[in-house]
Amino acid sequence: MVSRGRRLLTYEDVIVEALERAKRRFAEIRVSGEATKIIGRGASGDRTLLLDKALEDEILTLLKERLERCLIISEEAGFVGDPASELTALVDPVDGSTNAGRGIPFFSASVAIALGRRFSDIVSAGTVDLVNGEIIVASKGRGCRVDGKEAHPSTIDDLSAAVISLSLRVKGQYKNDPHLLANLLNNIRHPRILGTAALETAYVAVGKVDGFIEPYPRLRTYDCLPSLFLVKEAKGVFKILNTPEDIDLRSNVTLGYVAAGCQALLDKILKLMG
To answer: What is the pTM assigned to this prediction?
Structure first.
């Protein structure tokens, strides 16, 4: 719990407030026509759009106000705050920057708050669809909600019926396993490639898609752990492919994983992947 004057806020309240601020700032920048202006490179080495920096500033300002002593790990700014604090926040201000830069209306922002340094310490997380404004949020032991309404993952386990999103950013990886993607695409009847792992994974939590596959260890902690927490709290399932699942939030590990609405579908996808 954190205080705001006489009012006590939950960590979920803080996350929703941060994502609401991000939504409003996006609307302002969208009108300006400068959202896709490249202004430099962030701590991750990726190019930084004006949109990335503006939304990050909005979210970080709110988190600093509400959380006081904490360590924030964000895509553009890197590590911000007190490294001695056990309170950890993950921030991805814009996931799907390529979509945003090309005017493709599918990108998101995510925040997670942990009372410690590992995935198991996350107590609340949320992802906002910056285009339609939906906020998907969860807190430990309280399930998952979309704009305040309870949501659940799909129970579809048939590969011929399931809608499954995939990441196909495979440059430099495909030659190592040329049969993996062919096997997936030959067996999944309704594949989708949407370009924002955070939102696609969050969609697994609420049943909009039945599964999501990042086949190679490419995603950083802030890219995916907030949304994987949503899947976990919604009673969906996932498998990290390259490391134990209680991940150090402050590490520079990169992750591949499969998320699904139910165990049977997860098992079928993993079998396809060998």
So the answer is: 0.92
